[in-house]
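DM from R.C. (forwarded with permission)

"hey, sorry to bug you on a friday — could you get me a structure for this? deadline for the figure draft is monday and I only need the backbone to look sensible"
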Amino acid sequence: MEQEKEIQQLRNRFRDLAEKAFHQNMYTFSGFLGMSEQDVFYCMEEELRFAGYELSGGFELAERRMVRFGSPEELGFEVAFPIQCIHIEPMMKKFAEQLSHRDFLGALMNLGIERSTIGDIRVQEKEAYLFCLDTIAPFICDNLETIRHTHVKCTITEHFEEMTLEKPSEELLQVASVRLDAVISKVYHISRGECLDYFRAGKVFVSGRLCENNSKMLRPGDVVNVRGFGKFIFEEELGDTKKGKKNIAVAVFR
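My reply, with the result:
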């Protein structure tokens, strides 16, 4: 019941933002949305299309993204997404702990800020790059001083292109077909039966949309997120083997 109430509130929020953008000739923005929240948006896509929209998380393949309502063609100008990137690094890297995504997120939540103000956190060894709303970035830089027992410093950076983001492993696999469950099973080394459990639990997303159809046929460029495992990109079919299986190429983010 509480979940249904939250979904309805989110739907109302999308409608309000779209109406405001359309009638006041301006851009409006949601906060950062998780995969399930983005699926609520996609379920309303046709209803909201009149306002124009775009999604971004600050970099390509971001999981948490914002919606910007408003059309550059209609408005005649464009406003950038209000996203900044913060580089979080230890004061003394030599003595720093190995910190996980959970460690960074926990420290941020302890500052009392809302989850919707924070996008993806890209963790690399003992440091991380955090994408967040520009309005909250100065507060984070001034107040995030410690993660677990490691003292850190935060710096706003504009050089996203220089960042070392996730690098997928390019893998060649053989599958019975390019059905979604068959590819997931092969990529993550789980049985087709175990795959179904993830579909039933609402943990499988294809290009940002919740997917409950385990027999969906993948197309080149599809980004598959499986909660608890990570994500991969289905790149292409490479032909059939002599035994009738299909060779495929995927880029897997481990």
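R.C.: lifesaver. The mean pLDDT is 92.
me: no worries. The first strand starts at residue 28 and ends at 29.
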